[in-house]
């Protein structure tokens, strides 16, 4: 073949290499949704049980949530249509499955958004003014800003999440470097009586099931990256949670505040601001798209429902002091995580038979796996009731 002339196959290889990988943007959206208010509550609940017990919870929950997310990723890849979780449930489990998933999504996401409004107001008030006196006003300003960004949509999400992911990773490493010399090993070795305290909050902190349909949309044309995104996202979240909790509990022991970054000083409270910003953004788009695609309400009505309902719930919680920051996270994790997790397992079983697209990966499943993992989710509910 003459020099300077490429074969068709060589040209295709060159074109493929020139295609920009969507791995980082997709990972940023997943990680940005996972790491939110729950991340900030983990040191507090682990301080109530003891660090060693908390590490066991982190390992177990990260493991079975990763497996459940891989099952959901396969469901998404077996489906040609653009859906949110309720759309997948409707297709593979019928109307009753769609209703269960709808309840799980709105309960989990709206609870999370309320927690983020509470946490962001307190964190920003502390960072800017050194106290919590302006928390309500800042929460409302935060809500207004995110409402505008949610209307702009996925393009704004992809741009912001990518930057935010690296900022969050950098801040966690900075916290480790700055505080590691102050860690007291006695704070990491005690065991308290509140053995079940971490379960709900840690479960909530790994959920983010609603981000996977957005990840699929971002990976359009590069769906083979889905499995790498899921595994990398969970592993990164696990190590960030472990490192953060090790330092915060190691330094402050039982003195950790509910929003852990508030224990670290005004500069490091910015980590909480950043993580809640990204998570609120991603979850708002997820619930907007659920109403838009799965319930055919259109973009504008979906946006209104994703914005106004959290504001109303936040004002009720704020003025009537119904639940605390950590209580919201725990209840949301147990109820939403349990219902969503069990539904995902059943959807995967059905999607293997009824899917209309060949997936880029498959994960084996049978009734034994479904029963064992469902038992874990049910156990979470029981533990929360007993606590």
Taking the sheet with the most strands, its summary is: none
Oligomer: single chain
Shape: globular
Rg of Cα set = 21 Å
Query: Which class in CATH terms?
Result: Mainly Alpha
Corresponding CATH architecture: Up-down Bundle
Please provide the count of β strands: 0
Give me the CATH superfamily.
Answer: Amino acid/polyamine transporter I
The number of domains is 1
Based on secondary structure, the structural category is mainly alpha
* SSE ordering: HHHHHHHHHHHHHHH
Describe what this molecule looks like in 3D.
This protein is mainly alpha-helical and about 375 residues long. It has a single domain, classed as Amino acid/polyamine transporter I. It has 15 helices and no strands. Helix 3 packs antiparallel against helix 4 (about 50-75) and helix 5 packs across helix 13. The longest helix is centred in the first third of the chain and has 45 residues, at about 85-130. The N and C termini lie far apart (about 75 Å). The model is unreliable at about 15-20 (pLDDT under 50).
């Amino acid at each position: 073949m003459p020099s300077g002339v490429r074969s068709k196959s060589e040209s295709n290889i060159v074109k493929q290499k020139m295609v920009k990988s969507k791995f980082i943007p997709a990972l940023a959206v997943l990680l940005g949704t996972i790491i939110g208010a729950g991340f900030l509550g983990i040191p507090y609940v682990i301080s109530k049980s003891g660090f060693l017990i908390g590490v066991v919870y982190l390992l177990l929950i990260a493991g079975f949530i990763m497996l459940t997310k891989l099952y959901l990723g396969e469901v998404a890849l077996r489906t040609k249509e653009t859906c949110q979780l309720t759309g997948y449930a409707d297709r593979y489990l019928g109307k009753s499955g769609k209703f269960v998933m709808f309840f799980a999504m709105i309960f989990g996401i709206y609870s999370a958004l309320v927690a983020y409004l509470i946490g962001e107001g307190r964190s920003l008030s502390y960072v800017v003014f050194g106290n919590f006196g302006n928390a309500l006003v800042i929460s409302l300003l935060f809500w207004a800003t995110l409402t505008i960004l949610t209307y702009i949509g996925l393009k704004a999400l992809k741009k912001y999440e990518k930057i935010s992911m690296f900022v969050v990773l950098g801040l966690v490493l900075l916290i480790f470097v700055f505080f590691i010399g102050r860690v007291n090993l006695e704070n990491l070795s005690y065991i308290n009586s509140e053995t079940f305290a971490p379960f709900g909050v840690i479960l909530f902190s790994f959920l983010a099931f609603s981000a996977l349909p957005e990840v699929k949309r971002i990976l359009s044309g590069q769906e083979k990256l889905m499995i790498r995104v899921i595994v990398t996202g969970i592993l990164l979240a696990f190590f960030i949670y472990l490192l953060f909790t090790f330092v915060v509990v190691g330094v402050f022991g039982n003195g950790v505040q509910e929003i852990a970054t508030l224990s670290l000083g005004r500069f490091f409270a910015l980590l909480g601001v950043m993580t809640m910003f990204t998570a609120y953004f991603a979850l708002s788009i997820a619930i907007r798209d659920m109403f838009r695609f799965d319930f055919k309400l259109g973009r504008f009505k979906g946006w209104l429902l994703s914005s106004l309902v959290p504001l109303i719930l936040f004002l009720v919680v704020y003025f009537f002091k119904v639940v605390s920051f950590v209580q919201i996270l725990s209840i949301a994790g147990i109820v939403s995580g349990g219902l969503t997790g069990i539904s995902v397992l059943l959807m995967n079983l059905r999607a293997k038979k009824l899917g209309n697209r060949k997936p880029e990966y498959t994960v084996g499943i049978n009734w034994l796996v479904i029963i064992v993992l469902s038992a874990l989710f049910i156990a979470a509910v029981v533990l929360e009731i007993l606590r």
